[in-house]
Every structure is written in structure tokens, then in C-alpha cells.
Hints:
This protein has about 180 residues and is an all-beta fold. It has strands at about 1-5, 10, 15, 20, 25-30, 35-40, 45, 50, 55-60, 60-65, 65-70, 75, 80, 85, 90, 95, 100, 105-110, 115-120, 120-125, 130-135, 150-155, 165-170.
Amino acid sequence: MLKRSKKHEDDKGYADDKITEQKTRTPISHSETRAETTIIGENISIEGHIRGTEHLVIEGSMKGNIEMEKNDFTVGSKGRIEGEINAQNVKVSGQMIGNIKTQGKVEITKEADFMGEIKAKNISVEDGAYFKGSIELDKEPHRKTALAGKSTTVTNTQPENKPETQTVKQQDKET
């Protein structure tokens, strides 16, 4: 939004108009951090890439990739996105065609229309949402139980019908 300030006269009596840019930002709180949010309105169309260090909500249309690795991204109920999203957490309430990669959670609301691939630690899909795609959940790897030091006895039968006993030691390999 632009705001026009009062006219200013210089030493010679000339007047000039000053125009300043005014941004509207709403703070939003999360469990650990507090960051600002930028909202792109429903009458705005963007074609290109967006990178940022604050939370972003798109209510308009966007064609391109979005990089917000440490911040949250929301496709508003009137938003239409076509592209790749990389953000901390993602919420989809509008239309989206593309892939989502997060370090946190993806939330698909009942108003959403989503087609694409999701890679996240957590996901929720509300009843009534349209979802066509695939999901890959990142989980912490499970630790293998230690088998080192345990012995197993194996009996082999030789052609002469003499049983032969071997001791096989199993070792746990960490990957």
C-alpha cells in the first residue's frame, strides 16, 4: 500500500510530493520462534521464484518455486500454486499442483485440492480434501539390536552322511 505524505517545500519554494511504501505484516507465533508473515493477496499473480526468511501466505496465484527452508508457507483458501515448495511447515487450503519438501509438517485442509508428491516428517489430510499423489515420511532410523558376541550353531550334512558342526559368529554392522 502506498501512502502519500504532506507536500514539502525546499529552500527555493519548490514543492515535491513524498511517496512512501507501507507494508502490512502480522506477527505469528510458533512453539519456539516468532516471525513476521507476508501475505500475497488474491488479486496478485506471480510467475518466478520466491526465497524468503519470513512466513508466507499466498491467496493469489503463483507459478514457480518457493524456498522458505526455516519458515512456514501457506496456500490460502483462494490460492493457486503450481511449482515446488521447500519450507519448514506447509499448509494447503487452496489449489496446488507440484511437490512439497519440508523438515516439519504438511497439513492438507478440507478445502484443499492437491496433486503432487510430499516429503515430510508429519502429514495430516482432513476429511473432504482432494489428494492425488504420493507421500514419503522421514522418520528417525531404528537402532538394530546388538547381535555381536552371540554364536549360532549350524549343522551341515556331508555326502558321507557325517554331520559336521560349525560355529558362525554374527556381527551387527552399523550403517
